[in-house]
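Supplementary Text 2. Reproducibility record for the structural model of the 319-residue chain.

All settings were left at their defaults, and a single model was retained for analysis rather than an ensemble. We include the record here because the model underlies the residue-level annotations in Supplementary Table 4.
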Amino acid sequence: MVTYLFRRLIQAIPILFGISLVAFAIINLAPGSPVDRFQTGRVSHQTIQNLIHLYGLDQPLPVQYVKWITTFVQFWRVDAWGFSFVDGLPVTQKIFARVPSTLELMGTALAVTILFAIPIGILAAVRQYSWADKIITTFATIGYAMPSFWLGLLLLFVFAVELNWFPLFGKYTFGQEGQPLNLIWHLVLPVSSLAIQQIAGWSRYMRSSMLEVMHQDYIRTARAKGLPNSGVIYRHALRNALIPIITLLGLTIPSLLAGAAITETIFSWPGLGYLLVSSVNTRDYPVVLALTMMGGFMVIAGNLLADVLYAVVDPRITY
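Retained model, structure tokens:
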């Protein structure tokens, strides 16, 4: 296992290098410039040229890339990821200040997804073609088809604007910072926006996986031996049915980060997604590049986590 993990980590290096090349090329080919916000007529041309020189934007793109990537890999330095073009703060400081908020949102959404999706999928498989299965399938199809941004706006309008049950935006109510109950109150709507779509997809995968396992010979043998139905489902069928779900888990981690960019913007949640959207709008290249690389790393880490969990769930799998 250790050799396998080491080999996968080595393979991740050229992948991350490719991601850095593509991200750097796209962000520099996109229209606009970090100094566009100063083009108001009140800032002199010489001042704008000085800013371009300060940011290093007057250098050839290959030179800019080499300077950026050589400092970026020195992650132990405070200035490794550069400084924000907007406020001059170190990019590492801006990003790591937002990490706890994103982890709270993503972690809660993932926990809610697992808590609801797996039992719902098992119920739909065990009660195949029943009314419960039809209702679950209908709602799962609707939930999976709804775009996350539309769902977030709908939840915000209904439960925050019309019913006034939950807050409109933010992580805490002013004056109640650090209170757990206030945090949970603010988490309900953004977590629901992220989790509903994930629950819909996961439950369908769980149902399909369970149905496939339930028709295997060893399940029929277990039933023939007189084992109780609950034992057959939870001790024999479920463990093997979870293998495709583990693959889904590895893909869900980075997809939650992508969905959080929209959800955090809608609910003004002070996380990495909100920071990414605002940085794109202000052409804050160092922050956008750093967050893009973090997203690529999360994709690799999610897939590696899925491979490790395969061996935990299924002893037949060895590396």
